[in-house]
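Hi R.,

Here's the chain you asked about this morning:
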Amino acid sequence: MAAAPFSDVTALRAALLDAEAEAARAKAINADLAARVALLELQNEKMRRALYGQRSERGQLLIDQLELGLEELEASASEDEALGQSAAAGTPVEAFTRTRPSRKPLPAHLPRERVVVAAPTSCACCGSDRLSKLGEDVTETLEVIPRQWKVVQTVRERFACRVCEGITQPPAPFHATPRGLFGPSFLAMVMFEKFGTHQPLNRQRDRYAREGVEISLSTLADQVGACAAALAPLHRLIEAHVLAAERLHGDDTTVPVLAKTKAHVGRLWTYVRDDRPFAGPAPPAALFRYSRDRRAEHPVAHLTGYGGILQADAYAGYNTLFRSDRSPSPVTRALCWAHARRKFFELGDVAARPYLPDQQRRRTRAARRGPWQEGVAVRRLRPRRRARRVHLHADRHRQAQRHRSASLARRCPRSHRRHPAEPAL
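And the predicted structure, written out as tokens:
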């Protein structure tokens, strides 16, 4: 009679394990479905934006937010899958396995370290040692070597002459910054972390301290300033190359700047030279400038001496550059189609959007493969006809100020007043 309660407890424990395995399986399936839905939403948003979405920072922020949500859901789904497989072990419940897409092969340029597992010396079936190799199975695993710190000691030996008692010593080696406390690889890492991945120096200092290397914040800031001075000649070469272009693409974007009380909104000005759409021979380059605000004096100072074509938005700060009495010569304005049609694409009907005709698009693609002179000629083909089409489209919506499309109509005068003297390119 004492064995019955024990068997009941055993059965209850087995049923509990089965129920936990079923619950873990259901949780893993739900997490996988949530990750699939997030992936489909992300792909749908990317296709919608690629087909007829605006190419602006706001659309990119939306995609970044969707990718952030997908990241969390994918991690949760993988965790639930692993927990479900652990719970299903030893139970009749079938573990859930997620369906994953085929992964890309690992980069071919990475070095390969070959680790050969020791082959058997005898047959596992009959015990014979007469074995012949048929082939091999290779499994590749991506690995990383953790960062290692070291101190390089540069030794300069001194020698004394026994004849004249003079002292001889080789000269000191070149250092990227004064006093040579840090090597070029370390300096490049600090500069890239600060300006490439936007990691402030205090966070870099804390990370280095956790790795056992104590460096003060003032020392890091001093090295950043020394590197900026050392790279100034290279910056001047890039600036001269960019400003020597016949045409420039200019734009600015906001940059949050930390302060004592609250963050200020700075500006990062970008001037791009890119003749690849016209099959131009000059290499592309970008010139970056920073300012604490968006006053008009900044683009005027950046483009001092430039007299080519500037393609930018309708920001009033550029107007000084376009004045006829500017010295040495006025800059030629070229408006941007992306800015002009952005609100039409946003609020207008898809069928009524002023797309480039298919025939002209094909001619433009063909010209990009030819000499750059042909590309320039095609780019200038029928610009006023396209501008008139946008102008007529804007006129049809000017009455919308009294109706539901007031936000679109408020932006129509910008394109309207620039027509037809200054067509967008």
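Confidence is low (pLDDT under 50) at residues 349-360, 419-425.

Let me know if you need anything else.
M.
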